[in-house]
Amino acid sequence: MNQKLVSLTFGALCVCGLSFSQVKTIKKDTTTAPDKTVSVQIDSISDGKNLAIKEIEPVVDSLSTITIEDLQLASEFDQKWLDELYSNELFDSIYASVTDLKYDAVDYPELPTDTLKARLHKLSAKTPFNIEYNESLESVIKSYLKHRRNSLERLMSLSDYYFPMFERELDNYNIPLEVKYLAIVESALKPRAKSRVGATGLWQFMFATGKQYDLNVSSYVDERSDPLKSTEAASKYLARLYEIFGDWDLALASYNCGPGNVSKAIRRSGGYENYWNIRPYLPRETAGYLPAFLATMYIFEYAEEHGFKKHRPDFRYIDTDTIHVKQTISLDQVSELLELPMEELQFLNPSYKLDIIPYVEGKNYTLRLPRHAVGKFVTNEASIYEFVNNEMNKREKPLPQLFNSETKSTYRVVSGDNLGKIARQFNVRVSQLKQWNGLRSNNLKIGQRLTVYRTQPTTSASKSVSNVSTKSNIPNSAPSASQTYKVRSGDSLWSISRKFPGVSIQNIKDWNDISGSNLKVGTTLKLSR
């Protein structure tokens, strides 16, 4: 039996070996295109016929065949817009200091704890805010004194301009005058400050809240950036919040995070109504909001004791005045006509988003000027508007007629440059520089390249303001290589430049080594290099 079993087993193995030996294997050629069918010949056990097996082709991922790239020009525009939103160093540093306040002990021996306690007690007696000493507040005050001294001095200089207008509006609505320090915490006194959630202006109004308090936003104007109108709106809003909570600490907290979040914090604390008791239950930013406000108030009130030296401000609010515009006019036109730096006008008129003051029926849009320039504007008002009309008509021509590749040049920004300076250098307008380079703000970076079109002078611009000064005749042609002009009574750099097509105010200054704007009657000016 065993011998038969061995024989059968051996026979079966032989049959299997013969079957496998008949399989013809065809190796896949790695160079073969994937769309060819590869066949394998095998023996069928059932009928002995050969079968063809088709290889299953892999499905190619469609995304792997597409290259997705951003448009370079559009990407640059996006970056410029982001720079506009978040470029303000002082505003960002204050925003960060509020949201990331640290309450660790700070070594600052110049301010002993006992001295701080005594000063806070005096300060609390003068204001309705609850200014009680605690270690957290001491930490914030000493941290500001130690690490933020330079920025605080800059803010003190700016405050000389803004605080008088703040105090007037706050007083009109019976708001504590110390609330003026809130604008420092909110915006670092930057009228065009924008937070990462879209809050805008000195008092950081969101779009909807601004609309609720009559702060209109259009393509030309953002009244949230208007110092007077936004301060009035903030006063109304704070007065309403105080009516709700009956406590100025809670009113300020709700100004930052909304009344609903303050009410939730009161509930979560078990019913406490003192800010310091509900602070652990407030949003993180609001938890640091009142300490930052109180620390700022303390430092400003005791600035002299801490040796702060305020820099002389460029302007005082009382030294400016407003004019209601009678037609659309741009700030760079005002800058050229009144010989005022563009940056000065932008500082005084921050609510005009495109540096253009529109004329809209039923609206009272104003131009704020230094007092010394108001008289010049009013005296020459008719001629100024005539000039503006001619300028607008000239700008309506198709771009190819105004600019061509031969007039195009590139300028690289260097340290100390600003748009006004570059515009004067090339005898163009700030608005033109912004249009040619897709700029949404006035911020420039060192090394940045700007496209500039050198426009050809025309006689229409000079004729349009010929009535501003009628005491002398206007030459009919551009100055010759040796032409000069003798200054007469009533002349200014602006009026002289209007008389000679192709000669700018900066040209006259450069050719005659003039640094200021005052001219002496009888002086002979060169009108060419």
UniProtKB/TrEMBL annotation:
Which residue ranges does the record annotate as region Disordered?
457-483
Q: Where is the LysM domain?
A: 409-452, 483-527
Q: Where is the composition biased (Polar residues)?
A: 474-483
Q: Which CDD domains does the record match to this protein?
A: LysM (cd00118), MltD-like (cd16894)
Q: What is this protein called?
A: LysM peptidoglycan-binding domain-containing protein
Signal peptide, first to last residue:
none
Pfam family of this protein, just one?
SLT
Q: Where is the composition biased (Low complexity)?
A: 459-473
The parts of the chain that form a coiled coil are: none
Gene source species: Gelidibacter pelagius
- Tell me which family the UniProt entry assigns to this protein: Belongs to the transglycosylase Slt family.
